[in-house]
Amino acid sequence: xxxxxxxxxxxxxxxxxxxxxxxxxxxxxxxxxxxxxxxxxxxxxxxxxxxxxxxxxxxxxxxxxxxxxxxxxxxxxxxxxxxxxxxxxxxxxxxxxxxxxxxxxxxxxxxxxxxxxxxxxxxxxxxxxxxxxxxxxxxxxxxxxxxxxxxxxxxxxxxxxxxxxxxxxxxxxxxxxxxxxxxxxxxxxxxxxxxxxxxxxxxxxxxxxxxxxxxxxxxxxxxxxxxxxxxxxxxxxxxxxxxxxxxxxxxxxxxxxxxxxxxxxxxxxxxxxxxxxxxxxxxxxxxxxxxxxxxxxxxxxxxxxxxxxxxxxxxxxxxxxx
Length: 322
Ligand code: ADP
Description:
seven-stranded mixed β-sheet, 2 domains, Rossmann fold, alpha/beta, 322 residues, binds adenosine-5'-diphosphate, 11 helices, four-stranded parallel β-sheet, elongated
């Protein structure tokens, strides 16, 4: 038999579109005649009993806003065996049989541990970084891409006016997806990602000189957060080429803003699927997008999957961007 009473929480880094997922979980659960609770500030809310019963109207007018209406947190206490056990006992005391966890890999490890203590959990991938191996897409990724693209378009205006080089660092933790896709979209001259080693002379200096010989006077280089050292790189480029070079780290601007249509729709589909799984008695599953289809995997298997970087797209990007 499936869960009759469930909860939803957002955990780890926030991402635009999380609200659409929360809304979908709440509305789907109510449509299946389940009781549904919103848990405040991630796993901390379970540990502190900071939960509220949700109605259809509890999730009105949140979908178009970035961030998460349930707030989020990192919970050191939950990251211990005693913490997980305490959270499971709190769930039982509140009659919560299942939890939908919207977050990243770390949050899914927590969900797996909570399953081990007898609470049914379903993970929904929410992070701007697109760094979860089992899914082609994570909630927030599209909004972050569009924000980064718009910001770099603006940087290009001033870079062009001054005949400069701009080295722009985008987010992604250890994943180069934001860098690669943004780079293609803004026509950057070079892209540095943690998945592919680069050679400073060959991949930057020689490319700049080649581009210069064809009449190019300004340059955008996109660097993934996982490569880092963006300020140092800008200084090195200026030294090696004589071209005035500036570093910009986009930072948290990429985490905010109204979610794009794609993020809202994928989040809504994933939220619904998570509730359907709990309704049907499933547990320890993570929802994923494969191509355009919503699927689900065992959380433990999903956490062990290797992440695949699109090296072919990376090569195409290098051909287009000179
Ligand atoms: P994300 O979900 O974005 O990857 P974190 O890695 O910060 O973010 O994880 C969010 C929270 O999930 C942590 O603060 C912790 O409470 C919980 N968590 C992370 N890893 C584990 C783990 N191995 N076991 C139990 N809980 C974990």
